[in-house]
Amino acid sequence: MSEIPALPPEHPLQTRTAGSPIIRAARGEPVERTPVWFMRQAGRSLPEYRALREGVDMMTACNTTDLIVEITMQPVRRHGVDAAILFSDIVVPLRAAGIDVEIQPGVGPVVADPVTTSDGVTRIGALGDISQIEAAIQMLTRELADKPLIGFCGAPFTLASYLIEGGPSKDHAKTKAFMWSEPAVWHDLLAALSRLCGEFLRAQILAGASAIQVFDSWAGALAKPDYETYVLPHSRALLDSVADLGVPRIHFGVGTGELLTSMAVPECEVVGVDQRVRLADGITRIGPEHSVQGNLDPAALFAGEDVVHSRAAEIVAAGANARGHIFNLGHGVLPPTDPAVLTNLVAFLHEQSDR
Amino acid sequence: MSEIPALPPEHPLQTRTAGSPIIRAARGEPVERTPVWFMRQAGRSLPEYRALREGVDMMTACNTTDLIVEITMQPVRRHGVDAAILFSDIVVPLRAAGIDVEIQPGVGPVVADPVTTSDGVTRIGALGDISQIEAAIQMLTRELADKPLIGFCGAPFTLASYLIEGGPSKDHAKTKAFMWSEPAVWHDLLAALSRLCGEFLRAQILAGASAIQVFDSWAGALAKPDYETYVLPHSRALLDSVADLGVPRIHFGVGTGELLTSMAVPECEVVGVDQRVRLADGITRIGPEHSVQGNLDPAALFAGEDVVHSRAAEIVAAGANARGHIFNLGHGVLPPTDPAVLTNLVAFLHEQSDR
Predict the structure, then answer these.
(1) Phi-psi region of B294 (alpha: psi -120 to 50; beta: other; left: phi over 0)
(2) Catalytic (active-site) positions of B
(3) Interface pTM (ipTM) of the complex?
(4) Closest Cα in chain B, distance from residue A81 (Å)
(5) What is the tens place of the pLDDT at every residue in A54-68?
């Protein structure tokens, strides 16, 4: 089991959420029931979110204390999930570091002036003002009391892909060409992104986040040798940079069946598994030193209650063989999801585990 | 080794291409050099293709004998690849069966009136007139002489996803919900698609195609138990439907690391491996009963000659441990690829293997 350094005893995180099922499961401590939260639980599946976002662009919403607090709390109130996830976006720290990036509806992050091999690392400044976000976290953790707030950031590879491609990419061809043809510049760029995201995570934890997740949404585009050579060292450095704060760290990527054994580094406590891998297989690959998170297919939420319940029960049963298990979807909640289905799933899981 | 039924001795395929490196490698017979072709070698990477397609929509191009012949031959002439792949699209047989489907530039196939659980299978008619395609294949095989023409079709799951989603989808949520909530209708739909594609493959082979590939572009969206329950039986039926014609059958999907062991069915001779899996690992999963195809990352073609050559050499070396190895990309040629890089790669591979 990887050693988690202790927080200073006077730090409020030390006691506030330590007994919550999410934190206990993340640390591999016994829990009475499988805890659950959902990636993108705060967002477009909720009518109250869509109402609040009307006329407000995503980047503004991510940098406005009141909106962050309200949007983060909406799914906690509605679904009764066991943790809140900070309402933010993986490109928020890029913007706070001076990169001209917008989040366009229906597209995703768009970078005005993509990074090239000739400018590379010089474009990544220090993390600027995120006081609106820190204030939101302070308010949230007071309101959440013993329920954890999960902070997060993007992994260096995924952020690099947005920076180099200029937006979402299916093939990541420019990113990979950069990586293979200019490895020294690449490593500098990823190290800079790792430092930037580390600052962002640290600020979230110091403001009150009880756990963090690193999202490597695009890692699954890489074969294992490339992932291990060009990407993993920087993700490890990022995760390690908050080791002294002692909160559980979740390492998650999409389409990572080939990478799970590599992602289960000592610098994280939990590895997320997407829906393409049977959780039982994921647990085997991840091993007994880590807890796991996942992995109901977000598409299952459209298939009716019987399908949702039977698949969720299978996942809970498989999770019993992990060091610890946090129930989640294999990827984010899809915008057309009926929120009543999520509420029902949380209730089902809470009953299941009480048996 | 799976048994390949013999073609009637008078059939021209019996002798015309049987000695070609592609066919020999597919059958696991010794070859002097690793043969190579590229998925999407006929297409947007070539200026002569773009010139020919000006003002001609994709569906028209796929159904016009002269265009099919010319576009199919362009990469053979330019690159010296070891096989031609029929210029077509996986939705061509859907259109020939009466489905209103267009191929929109920059989008892909768009189905005017998506299939639902209430109409399902009734929408899949018999294969209509494909005489323009058959005539093209007859002309091509004469021109290609002892070089194989590879025919192809989409796999039932991938076609079902287009039909149900109405176009390309990232999450396939409607498709999966259909599959899980209405399994009987689902199986009828996939069986109908399997029959339709089987007719299309048979027509291609009888007109002169020396090998076929079944493209399951979206199979990687499924976890293995779902793939085996809802999809694989129909892909097997499709592959089996042309078993009596005795041409090698290639079974390929994208993001199929979890599925390779399942995809290596007795009804195919070759399993394609995408770039996310090390070819050596793919060969282990596929086993000694099948040849393999793949798997250079299409993005590597943007990283300079040294990267291309060193990665290609690694793949050739790994392929030596398979029953047989056909070199290919892990997925299709990306449109911005410099065709000179492909020509250079073919030359490099032909030199390599002659050593």
Answers:
(1) left
(2) 40, 44, 53, 89, 162
(3) 0.92
(4) 23
(5) 999 999 999 999 999
